[in-house]
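sanity check this:
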Amino acid sequence: MRLPSVAVVIPCFNRSERLRRALRSVASQTSLPEEVIVCDDGSTEDLRFVTLEFAQSLNIHYVAIPNSGGPARPRNVAVTAATSDWIALLDSDDWWLPNKLERARSRALDADVIYHRLQVRSVDGGNHASAIVGWNHLSRTQPEFDLLTLGNPIPTSAALVRREIYLSAGGMEERYPTIEDYEFWIRATRSQKARFVFLNEVLGFYEAAPDSYSASGAKQAEYLEQILTAQLERFEEREQQAITSYRDFAMAVQFLQAGLAEQARARLVAATHLRTWRQRASRWAKLACLANRWL
């Protein structure tokens, strides 16, 4: 049986040493990809030189575009240039364990999106033993509603998606410089009825860095409000309450990270219809902390 072909797509902007580390992890795979496409989003560093280091070990292609301000456009450009059945997403500051692609290919027949866990690493290379990103909460019957009320369980660098699904869904929204992946999974689930398979394994590493797009805060809260509010009209009133409550709760988390206590408190007060006891307990704990801070 022919294994599905895989293209690894890496958007990048400067940070050549991190790109080199990511590419080393791809070249070390026990099941090598058919192609690797690095899309340079207007770097001032010579990233083409980095890709040439891997020309003997990988079928690697370098594409350069003017800076777009986020990873969505370079990802879209790279996916369009690819020819493989599947797209393996990898951010330039993350990296994989050697068996990542082998494990993912083994589940390709019954899925449209495959994802797994990532271990968090700090910029100094230290492990966060309890910090894992990626979890399973997407049901077979209502994955879109789960995404809208429980959040995004899919680390970008842990995801493989069928190329036809990616393109048919319209690619990632280029006006969002962050959480563009979250918006894409919502849209792909709605428009393409994407089937998700979760591998309950750590198969790579996510670098937590203050200069990463995911470390935003107030702007990310703004994008969450736009994305989640836009989904409401398709749902009944009770479901809308759950979605708006998760929206407010998720925005509050971002406001807290940005040090905006008043905005966070207002959103937490509004989030009265959260779906899970964990969310509800976290909401009350955050409200209590904010109240104590103001005493």
Remarks:
- The first helix runs from residue 16 to 27.
